[in-house]
Amino acid sequence: MLHPETFARFVGLARRRTPRRGRLAADGAAVLIRRAAPGDEPQIARLAALDERPQLPRGERLIGELEGRVVAALDVRSGRAVADPFVPTRKIVELLGLRASQVRR
Asked: Rounded to two decimals, what is the model's pTM?
């Protein structure tokens, strides 16, 4: 007799894939990397306060969302980032830095 998870994988009923635009976080949650919009300003300010860092300069910024919640932001020009210290965001900030290097080209 097979364990239910093993059986599900065997017959192709395993967990659905994350959306193509997403990246996987350490725990398997989908991460969305996108450009910051004017409406994201309060969330970026909240991250800076939580991270005990100065506010990011105004300009082109990228946002990292984890399951629909903004958990990190990065200034494209300077590469400076702010992130939620209560969420494992190291890999998300790395993804933001990689995307920023692509955007700068």
From this structure: 0.72
| 18-104 is classed CATH 3.40.630.30 | yes
Domain ranges for the chain: 18-104
CA separation for the pair 105, 99 (Å, rounded): 10
d(CA 2, CA 33): 38
What are the φ/ψ torsions at residue 64 (nearest 5 degrees)? -115, 120
pLDDT one-digit tens code per residue, 18-68: 333 334 455 677 899 999 999 999 999 999 999 999 999 889 999 999 999
Alpha-carbon distance 27 to 8, whole Å?
20
Per the structure block, which two tokens stand in for 67? 């399951």
